[in-house]
Amino acid sequence: MASVASPVTFKEFCPLYYLLNAIPTKIQKGFRSIVVYLTALDTNGDYIAVGSSIGMLYLYCRHVNQMKKYNFEGRCESITFVKLLSCFDDLVAVGTASGRVAVFQLVSSLPGRNKQLRRFDVAGIHKSSITALAWSPNGMKLFSGDDKGKIVYSALDLDQGICNSSLVLEEPSSIVQLDYNQKVLLVSTLQRTLLFYTEEKSVNQVGTQPRK
């Protein structure tokens, strides 16, 4: 018996002017006018997160059509990677060009959810540009990779406000992709792809030939 084809929905794609118009194209710093470049992007059903060259994270809430801004204290540096997660609380992880990583626990209007913006910092293990971030589905684990091949595991306790981080793997080339599921971390570098088993702390390479 032939299967019935599902109905097709046609969609029109257009620039998100309502989003782009809420982000400045230039900022004034002293006597200088600095151009703002958009450097990182992630989306889910609730938010659109945009990182910028001035160290500002622009977070657009799709339900209330409202833009919010978050930044790092200290010097202005480019955001290189952002990663959203919707679990019991809404979380966004941000990485920068110098290796700083921060997690923002967002405020929610829903009953029983987080009512105060909180930030967690991954303390000074990365020393170079963040190239990949990956969440566990429950938001208790964050993995971050940089362009020198370091992968850091951060354990988050949102109730206690604690973030403990440690170096778990170091590759000889830049990390280009991370994905985590069921105690297995998928790692892609410029040279190879591997599976890192977080409980056993063992590595299984995918394929035998290095990338060219």
Alpha carbon gyration radius? 19 Å
CATH superfamily of the domain at 33-174: YVTN repeat-like/Quinoprotein amine dehydrogenase
Question: What is the share of helical residues?
Answer: under 10%
The name CATH uses for the topology of the domain at 33-174 is: Methylamine Dehydrogenase, Chain H
Would you identify the CATH architecture of the domain at 33-174? Answer: 7 Propeller
CATH class of the domain at 33-174: Mainly Beta
Alpha plus pi helix count: 1
- SS strand fraction: over 45%
* Overall pLDDT score: 89
Number of DSSP-assigned strands: 18
Low-confidence stretches: none
Order of helices and strands: HEEEEEEEEEEEEEEEEEE
Main sheet characteristics:
4 strands, antiparallel
Question: What can you tell me about this protein's structure?
Answer:
- This protein has a domain of 142 residues: 7 Propeller (Methylamine Dehydrogenase, Chain H).
- A hairpin with a 2-residue loop joins β1 and β2.
- Strands 3-4-5-6 form a 4-stranded antiparallel β-sheet, with no helix packed on it. Strands 7-8-9-10 form a 4-stranded antiparallel β-sheet, with no helix packed on it. Strands 11-12-13-14 form a 4-stranded antiparallel β-sheet, with no helix packed on it.
- It contains 1 helix and 18 strands.
- 2% of the residues lie in helices and 51% in strands.
- The longest helix has 4 residues.
- The mean pLDDT is 89.
- The chain has 212 residues and is mainly beta.
- The chain is globular, with a radius of gyration of 19 Å.
SSE blueprint:
Blueprint: H1 17-20, E1 26-29, E2 32-35, E3 38-43, E4 47-52, E5 56-61, E6 66-71, E7 79-86, E8 90-96, E9 101-105, E10 118-122, E11 130-135, E12 141-146, E13 150-157, E14 162-170, E15 175-181, E16 184-189, E17 193-197, E18 202-206
Antiparallel strand pairs: 1-2, 3-4, 4-5, 5-6, 7-8, 8-9, 9-10, 11-12, 12-13, 13-14, 15-16, 16-17, 17-18
Organism: Vidua chalybeata
Pfam families: WD40 (PF00400)
Protein name: TCPR2 protein
